[in-house]
Design brief:
Length: 380
């Protein structure tokens, strides 16, 4: 069974309970308050945003979509790459603050930087939202600062869980896993979810191989599959490990189904021809929610959840396979098309929709999770 809500709601409730302790003074219970910044809905805010890296397709797409969201709401975007290091991530936040930005949209891929990043922004009175990479639930729950306005991100534990559940439902009993670095929460969360679903259904994850980059996939997959030739299926934590894995399968004359998460443009043909049975996408849609939270705060209309806490919006990526991949390409990999559209952004922004509430954010997330492709297409 596809697990879209139970796991997510459990995590959200746990995070909300902890956040309540630190945010009791953030505002009264309700969906929106006349609090936050002093803007009147017409200011052209300068927003600093970081991406964990550059030169890789997924990050290059972020560097298109994040500025689009900021500029669509009337702001100016200033971006910087973290070059895949925690030190650069923190320095980028410091540089944004020194440059006098009005707000920060942070990708907190290195959770060790969050506390100091919050402190730097708090000292300058600059609000911060997190998008796409949100550190850990425990780190977010520990934030005690009025300048933190919430986050929008992909629920990667449930992303992995859905892949493992599908594999179990297909009748597979043994699996191996290959993907990126151990210790990277974007990988570890998916492994946790996949393993939980697969083994709860009676399956067994018999071996794993972790790589520093997809360039190691062929070598690591060869070793992994040579040692486990009778395994029923293989799960690639992210799809960019699938090409090397498929080459290894071919060289070993093995026919083992490949499941994955996190579609990338490099593997579209593998999805089209069924060599990747299923993957997922939508990891980056959380940035649109985070940008809207930041603008609403700056405009003096902070969005709070029904308990009076800053929103913690974890959205489950949607399934992609040969049947819907062309529609996904039309929405996500076509020049001039933005999956988190102008219409969606304006629905969530007080400067365009004065009746916006927290429930609008929840309803939009639910619509995406119910049928992402149909909903996103309808909002173009």
């Amino acid at each position: 069974m596809k697990k879209t809500n139970v796991w997510k709601r459990t995590l959200a409730l746990a995070a909300s309970a902890a956040l309540l302790l630190g945010c009791a003074g953030c505002g009264s219970s309700g969906s929106g308050t006349e609090s936050g910044g002093s803007g009147d809905g017409t200011d052209a805010y300068l927003i600093g945003y970081n991406t964990w890296g550059a030169g890789v397709a997924v990050f290059e797409q972020m560097m298109i979509e994040i500025p689009f969201s900021i500029e669509t709401l009337g702001g100016e975007a200033s971006g910087a790459s973290d070059d895949f290091t925690a030190d650069t991530e923190l320095n980028n936040i410091k540089n944004f603050v020194s440059a006098g930005v009005d707000g920060v949209l942070m990708q907190c891929a290195a959770s060790t930087t969050l506390s100091e990043a919050i402190s730097v922004c708090e000292s300058a009175g600059i609000p911060l939202a997190m998008g796409i990479f949100p550190s850990t639930p425990e780190d977010r729950a520990a934030i005690e600062s009025d300048i933190y306005v919430g986050c929008g991100y992909a629920d990667l534990v449930t992303d992995g869980y859905n892949a493992g559940s599908e594999a179990a439902e297909a009748g597979y009993k043994t699996a191996v896993i290959i993907g990126g670095n151990l210790g990277d929460p974007n990988n570890d969360d998916r492994v946790e979810g996949f393993t939980d679903a697969f083994e709860s259904a009676g399956g067994q994850v018999v071996d794993t191989a972790r790589c520093t980059s997809p360039a190691e996939a062929l070598e690591k997959a060869n070793a992994l599959l040579s040692a486990n030739r009778d395994v029923d299926m293989i799960y690639c934590i992210t799809s960019d490990y699938a090409p090397g894995t498929i080459t290894a399968l071919e060289s070993l004359s093995l026919e083992i189904p490949v499941y994955a998460s996190s579609l990338s443009v490099e593997v579209l043909d593998y999805v089209r021809n069924g060599q990747i049975v299923r993957t997922s996408y939508g990891n980056d849609l959380g940035q649109g929610f985070a940008v809207a939270l930041l603008f609403n705060y700056l405009d003096g209309h902070q969005i709070l959840d029904d308990e009076g806490n800053v929103p913690d919006l974890g959205m489950v990526p949607f399934r992609v396979d040969a049947e819907n991949v062309e529609a996904v390409v039309d929405l996500f990999f076509t020049d001039g098309v933005h999956p988190f559209s102008q219409k969606m952004l304006e629905t969530l922004a007080w400067r365009y929709n004065e009746s916006v509430t927290y429930q609008d954010f929840v309803d939009m997330m639910d619509s995406i999770e119910s049928d992402a492709v149909a909903y996103l297409a309808s909002m173009q």
